[in-house]
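**Paired protein data**
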Amino acid sequence: MRIKKRIYRPISDFGDFKFDFYIFDFNAKEPSKYALVEEAKKIVKKHRVYLLRDEIRVLPYGDPEDDWLQVDISRGTISAGSFFSNDQIIGRIKILSSTYKCNFLGADNKQ
């Protein structure tokens, strides 16, 4: 299996962006009016934080096996019980072509 090496750049290189995230606490000890039923939890666990360029999803960002925001790595270095996991957060980061400062994804995403 070939290991992909990612190049991380300072966020300022990317230009302006918008984002929305939703974090779900699957281990809440207290009942809540916001609690999810098991079927809803299964749906949430299938999704991650997606990257969109001009409203089009950029693969593989957001695939279940791709922890591109390193959420699980952070969780492993901090108290796991005090930090959410990669399958508890869904959302999207949107980059519009008018704000590109560099071609960090490439025209055809050859990563």
